[in-house]
Structures are given as C-alpha cells and as structure tokens.
C-alpha cells in the first residue's frame, strides 16, 4: 500500500496524487480535473501550493502539518511500521478523515460507520493520540491528546472513513479538569464576542473529563455532513513541519504580521463584512487578556471555500495558560516586539495593528470594543467550580488593565493562581 500513489480529493474533485519522489519524500502532482476546475496558480488547497505548482518542500510542509505531532506521530508511525516522515505510508492508513475538506487515498479503504457503546468510547479516549486506525482512518494535528468522532442524536459514532467526523474530543485526567474547563471558558468568551459560532462543552465520559468541540470545518445538513476546507497559517506560510517552526522564536516567518499579510486578499470595495485583519486584531486582544501564550501559527486558520474564496477561520484552541503557577509568560508570537504577555499594553496592540496596515484610530476603536466585550462576558459567563475563583477574574483584570493603558499583568501579593480569589465577583 505504501508504494502506491494516493488519490487526493478536495470538495469531491480529484485534485491530484501524492507520489514518492527521490529519497522517499512526498510530491503532490495536480490533476487535469483540478486544472479544469480552478484557474492556474489559484489557491483552493493552500496559499503555499497554488494550482499547477509542485515541489517536495511545500508538499511536505502542507501535508505533513495534517498529522499529529511529537510522540503521537512517532506512535502512529510505529503502529504502521513506517518512518515518521513517510507521508505516503501514513496517509495510506489515516487519510479518510482529516482537517478541512481533504481526503487522501479516497475510495481505497473505508468501512461502515459504527455506533460506539460507552465502554468502547472510554477505551478510545484512553488511547487518544490524534488518530484512529482502521476503515480509512482519521488524523488530527497537534501535540494535545485528542480524538475525532461523529455525533448524532446524542450518540458517538466512529465514521470509519465513510462518515465525516463532527466533533473533536480532548480527554484529561480528573486532576487536570481545570485545563479543559479553562479552555472551554475562553471559547465561551470568544463566542460571546462573536468570534466563533461552534459549540463546546466539558463532558464526563466514564470517569474522564473531556472537552468536546464542534468542528467548524463541517456543515451538517438534513441529509449529509459536508466538509469545509481549511489550512492553518503554518501551512499557508509554508513553514517546515515536524518541529518548532510554528513559533516565532524558532522561525521569524511565524509572526502576526506574516499572518496578516495573507488575509483579505479576496476582499473588494463592495464587501461589507468585517475585514479579516480587524478580526485578527480581536483574536489577539482576547489572547492577551486570556493569558493564552500558545497562539502560534497553527492556531490560526483560513477557511477555503469551493468557489475559491477564503476567510479567517473562527477563533479556537485557546486557554489561560499564563495564569498557571510558574507558567512561562513568553508568547508564541510577539506583539510589536514584546514577547512577554504580562508586559503587553494597548499601545503594543495598536502598533502591531498599524504594521498590518490598519489605521491607528480604527485599531484603537476595535481594541476598546473588544476589551469592553471581554469584561462584560466575564461578568455574565458561568464558570465551573474548578476555575470560578481565578479564571474569570484573571481575564477580566487583564482586560481592565489593557483598557486603562497599563500592562496586562495583574499585580497581586502572590502568584495569581494562589490567591483565595482573583478579581471582583461576577455580580459587581
């Protein structure tokens, strides 16, 4: 199987094939169907892989970034008895359900969807490593333990390469429940700000706390589950995969300015929706207020529609990491040259936005509106008891400091997470 060319489909079109190049590397070749469907050098797949272009480096940068990272990739490769950089061998087993609208190896190995009993679900969660083997397989990128499944009428289904997944499940131990509750809370704030539309909640499956996140790259209709294509910004910027290039400290190309440079390319003077660069500024403001130091290039994405349009994907994958005791405070991407999240001020945010081409007055208006909305949301949004004494007050306090022109850092007599309570009660 690993020596065969793998058929690649996007929005039901056979767009090309993954084949082996020299030294076992992968090469993507565009199909005649794709050349007939989209204009030459357009970007329905990726900004780094325009139609008609082909190169092993950009092939591996884009396709490799669809897979789990670190030890989870090693575990997957070991299970398949292939090298961890053997994209042909790996996608032959897990290419049926991926991020976005891609399927790889489509039509060769699939299975019937299977309704999962709770015992099977508990077992799957105990092994969650970002992939599922069998029936065409599935894969999710990232270092965090996770699993992609389909939800229907309150039940969980293993799609087996036939039915697209609809949700991502992130299990943790009971002692780490606050981590998924914190992430879910930040997503709730973002939802209140209109920065995302998908649902999320924390469930207990067996005895395991699980963050359940509805996939924004899926659309459920009366008759089917439709895939929506996306690429993360590490893929769009052609950053090398498999290492730390998604962080600005490792690759200067992984910056907010670089992300902003690929936004709004399809925008016309007749477009009345919010510009993506303004939306990116709102995301950045919320990340700072929430203490999300892990906002790297893979945690921003573009949605790419079948008509060729693209837009910034909803806000996702954020947590109040800087609140933790002795937590590292260096951000994945700097803001106007400032790398430490507690030192960021409103002026840093304005200067960063100006570097993207936003007018200073408009940037200040967007920032002020976003901070006001964050403060209001933390006064209204309920929080689980594992985070209620610290997370809402922490986010609110950092937002209030930014709004007042001060550095985001909350001044406390001890580390914030060790305070009996942080911030003012929600009813103030």
Structure description:
The protein has 428 residues and is an alpha+beta fold. The protein has twelve helices and 19 strands. The protein has helices at 32-37, 56-64, 71-80, 87-94, 118-126, 177-192, 233-236, 256-261, 276-290, 346-355, 360-380, 391-403, and strands at residues 6-10, 13-20, 26-30, 102-104, 114-115, 131-132, 138-139, 147-152, 155-158, 167-171, 200-205, 208-214, 218-220, 225-227, 229-232, 301-304, 310-312, 330-335, 338-340. The strands form six sheets. Strands 5-9-8-10-12-11 form a six-stranded antiparallel beta sheet. The chain has a four-stranded antiparallel beta sheet with strand order 3-2-1-4. Strands 15-16-17 form a three-stranded antiparallel beta sheet. The chain is globular and about 60 Å long.
Topology:
Elements (H helix, E strand, L loop, with lengths): L5 E5 L2 E8 L5 E5 L1 H6 L18 H9 L6 H10 L6 H8 L7 E3 L9 E2 L2 H9 L4 E2 L5 E2 L7 E6 L2 E4 L8 E5 L5 H16 L7 E6 L2 E7 L3 E3 L4 E3 L1 E4 H4 L19 H6 L14 H15 L10 E4 L5 E3 L17 E6 L2 E3 L5 H10 L4 H21 L10 H13 L25
Task: Throw out a few tags for this protein.
428 residues, 19 strands, four-stranded antiparallel beta sheet, alpha+beta, globular, 12 helices
Structure described in brief:
About 30% of the residues lie in helices and about 20% in strands. It is built from 12 helices and 19 strands. The model has no long low-confidence stretch (mean pLDDT about 95).
């Amino acid at each position: 199987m690993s020596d065969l060319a793998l058929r690649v489909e996007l929005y039901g079109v056979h767009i090309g094939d993954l084949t082996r190049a020299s030294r076992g590397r992968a090469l993507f070749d565009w199909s005649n169907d794709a050349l007939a469907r989209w204009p030459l050098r357009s970007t329905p797949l990726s900004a780094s892989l325009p139609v008609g272009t082909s190169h092993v480096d950009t092939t591996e940068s884009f396709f490799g970034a669809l897979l789990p990272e670190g030890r989870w990739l090693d575990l997957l490769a070991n299970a398949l008895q292939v090298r961890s950089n053997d994209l042909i061998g790996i996608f032959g087993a897990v290419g049926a359900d991926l991020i976005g609208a891609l399927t790889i190896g489509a039509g060769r190995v699939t299975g019937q969807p299977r309704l999962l009993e709770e015992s099977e679900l508990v077992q799957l969660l105990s092994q969650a490593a970002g992939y599922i083997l069998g029936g065409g397989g599935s894969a999710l990128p990232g270092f965090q333990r996770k699993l992609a499944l389909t939800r229907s009428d309150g039940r969980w289904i293993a799609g087996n390469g036939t039915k697209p997944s609809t949700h991502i499940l992130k299990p943790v131990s009971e002692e780490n429940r606050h981590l998924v509750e914190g992430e879910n809370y930040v997503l709730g704030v973002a939802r209140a700000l209109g920065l995302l539309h998908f649902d999320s909640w924390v469930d207990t499956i067996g005895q395991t706390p699980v963050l359940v996140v509805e996939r924004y790259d899926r659309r459920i209709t009366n008759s089917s589950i439709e895939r929506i294509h996306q690429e993360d910004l590490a893929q769009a910027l052609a950053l090398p995969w498999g290492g730390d290039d998604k962080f600005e400290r490792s690759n200067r190309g992984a910056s907010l300015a670089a992300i902003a440079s690929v936004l709004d390319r399809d925008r016309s003077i007749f477009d009345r929706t919010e510009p993506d660069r303004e939306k990116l500024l709102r995301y950045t403001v919320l990340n700072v207020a929430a203490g999300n130091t892990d906002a790297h290039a893979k945690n921003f994405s573009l949605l790419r529609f079948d008509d060729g349009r693209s837009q910034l994907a909803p806000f996702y994958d954020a947590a109040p990491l800087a609140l933790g005791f002795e937590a590292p405070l260096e951000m994945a991407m700097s803001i106007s040259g400032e790398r430490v999240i507690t030192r960021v001020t409103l002026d840093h945010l304005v200067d960063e936005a100006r570097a993207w081409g936003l007018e200073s007055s408009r940037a200040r208006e967007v920032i002020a509106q976003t901070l006001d909305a964050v403060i209001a949301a933390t006064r209204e949004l309920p929080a689980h008891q594992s985070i209620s004494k610290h997370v809402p007050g922490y986010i609110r306090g950092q937002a209030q400091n930014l709004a007042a022109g001060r550095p985001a850092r909350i001044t406390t007599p001890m580390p914030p997470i060790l305070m009996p309570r942080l911030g003012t009660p929600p009813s103030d």
